[in-house]
Hints:
By secondary structure, the protein is α/β, with parallel strands linked by helices. The protein has helices spanning 51-55, 67-78, 98-103, 119-131, 146-157, 174-177, 187-200, 216-244, 251-257, 267-278, 294-304, 310-322, 328-341; strands at residues 59-63, 82-86, 110-113, 137-140, 162-169, 180-184, 208-212. Strand 4 (137-140), helix 5 (146-157) and strand 5 (162-169) form a beta-alpha-beta unit. The model is unreliable at 1-54 (pLDDT under 50).
Amino acid sequence: MRRENRLSRTGRHGAPARPAATARRRLGSGGRPPARPARTRPGKPRQRRPQRLRNHLMELGLVGLGKMGGNMRERIRRAGHTVIGYDRNPDLADVHSLQELVDSLQAPRVVWVMVPAGAATQSTVDELAELLSPGDIVVDGGNSRWTDDEKHAEELKAKGIGFVDCGVSGGVWGLENGYALMYGGAAEDVAHVQPVFDALKPEGEFGAVHAGKVGAGHFAKMVHNGIEYAMMQAYAEGWELLEKVDSVTDVREVFRSWQEGTVIRSWLLDLAVNALDEDEHLEQLRGFAQDSGEGRWTVEAAIDNAVPLPAITASLFARFASRQDDSPQMKMIAALRNQFGGHAVEKK
């Protein structure tokens, strides 16, 4: 039976109230990130979402409160929504089980899954399929393979539960800057979750897209990560060449000079400068870089569709080479991955 101690609809200042003390952590003191100036696209009118969706406050269950999930919970709460989080680490969790999480939400429920792709996601979806009711929706915001999305959608559809897949980019910076979102699923399911997407996305016109049907969100995120591989590899190769020659005496400042006015300026370039400020010649790092799997999936999809991806494929193979040698280029790749995503690096 559903618990009688329901969540109240509003709290102080009209915002949704927290559940009981055992089921809700105190919010931080920070406010919403400062708004970024909106960019405009010539010849394309700006589309505004209906006022009903933009102002609608909702409840969300969030499974997985790690580096990204914990910050996402905070950003969604800052927008005024109620978030009840579950994690296997009780120090992070608002509730102590998926059953308690589901019981804490009013129907129709939305549960966002933010756990590692593969077995962890599958087991979570399987358990939610038994706990949720027809009309509820599951969102997979992890880095799942798009083919798994189709399987999960069919499994949940058989029980009348909707499914949306969402590729999320933003790493450890997403709390303040917002998260780029690529989501796939039926239009009615996406519309129901839209207030949460609006809370998570960056300020301004861009940063989120309904990419298509189920699987489209994670496919788009996979291609995004493949492009990321190639961009990081290009910066790393250029950095190694600059470090190698005697005529260039301040490689870090060369990189810094590219941050304004050049066609290769980007957020990744800014992060490269951050890394060089912390360790000018990356001498503290071992030239070893992991791959998360999405680069491999991108190359596999390219083969299946006969699309040539020489740059992305070469950047993936370069990471494999890093496991054989102490590669100078991979020091920069490792430093960049640590800067944007908090990924672990190997010290010398």
